Protein: DNA-binding MarR family transcriptional regulator
Organism: Streptomyces canus
Amino acid sequence: MARQPQELLYLLTRAERLAVRQVQSVLDEFDCSVEAWRVLDLLSDGQGHNMTALADHAFLPAPSLTKLVDQLVDQNLVFRRVDPADRRRILAHLTPRGKQRWQLLVREVRSDWGDLQQLLADEELAGPLARLAEALESRDTGLARVTTHRTESAVGRGR
């Protein structure tokens, strides 16, 4: 029997909040927020990412992301560079210390989730969740612009 949208939303929200609580309990030992962990995670690919991509990945509005990245720069975990392909943009990268911190955090979170690793690797769970996220995003309900919308409206108001 198909679930109603409100049931699905409840289950997804409950799972997300419990998962964040679990991860945050590990990250608290390292004075790191889930949002900072998400930023470090995206930057761990070594490619460098612009602020819009980081905001989307961390689920943060642009001003909050800027403050977070400033803190990560102050901690010598992240550095900023001008994008060589578009000198108007700034790319963030992990410092060597940031890469070490990310590796430590990933190792600790994975070990804490030990008994759940099999469930996380199960395509019967991950596949449908990924397809649901993609389907919702493609419906253009504003989900893809959660973080960038505030930036656009702030610019429009002259802030």
In short: Confidence is low (pLDDT under 50) at residues 143-159. The two ends are 50 Å apart (CA to CA).
